[in-house]
């Protein structure tokens, strides 16, 4: 599993571990089923303003220092693949999307996506429940199984009681930093 934002700015490497002059700029999503189909790229060259793209299926490995691909020939321009060009035009923005209950109550905002590094399938979301909750508890995790993507309202709809489907990140928030165990009900 990979957290999407951790890839932004990483370099591409070829099969021989040679660093290429391309860097991950953003993710491109397909909505049904929700999946990353590839990444838009920045090319570090003066005067180059073209958009480049690496299809997800051409990625061989994800690492902390970069993303490995088979060959630089796998990097294409979006117009070379009609599905990619259509996805760019559709511009499905998951980051910043509202998370609502079935009654329409706003319970959070999507801050990031988590995807399967083999298939590209989105398996969950990193969610903000508000500044104070984020500060005290850290961001939350929302499994894709517990919500539906509603493109009509451009939001995620939580299927169940949201208090039971949002899982707080175990490493986040002041409570964790200060060593406060919520089960012992220690106070600040």
UniProtKB/TrEMBL annotation:
Pfam families, per the entry: PRC (PF05239)
InterPro entries: PRC-brl_dom, PRC_barrel-like_sf
Sequence ranges assigned to domain PRC-barrel in this UniProt record: 94-145
Segments crossing the lipid bilayer: none
Protein name from the UniProt record: PRC-barrel domain-containing protein
Natural source organism: Alkaliphilus pronyensis
Taxonomy of the source species: Bacteria, Bacillati, Bacillota, Clostridia, Peptostreptococcales
């Amino acid at each position: 599993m990979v957290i999407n934002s951790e890839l932004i700015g990483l370099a591409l490497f070829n099969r021989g571990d040679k660093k290429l002059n391309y860097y991950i700029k953003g993710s491109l999503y397909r909505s049904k089923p929700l999946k990353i189909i590839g990444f838009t790229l920045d090319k570090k060259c003066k005067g180059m303003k073209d958009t480049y793209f690496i299809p997800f299926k051409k990625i061989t490995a994800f690492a902390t220092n970069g993303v490995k691909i088979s060959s630089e020939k796998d990097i294409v321009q979006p117009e070379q693949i009609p599905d990619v060009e259509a996805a760019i035009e559709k511009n499905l923005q998951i980051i910043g999307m509202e998370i609502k209950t079935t009654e329409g109550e706003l319970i959070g905002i999507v801050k990031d996506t988590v995807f399967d590094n083999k298939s590209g399938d989105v398996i969950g979301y990193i969610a903000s429940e508000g500044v104070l909750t984020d500060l005290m508890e850290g961001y939350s995790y929302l499994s894709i199984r517990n919500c539906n993507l509603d493109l009509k309202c451009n939001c995620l709809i939580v299927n169940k009681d949201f208090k039971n489907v949002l899982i707080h990140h175990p490493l986040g928030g002041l409570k964790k930093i200060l060593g406060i165990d919520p089960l012992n009900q220690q106070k600040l």
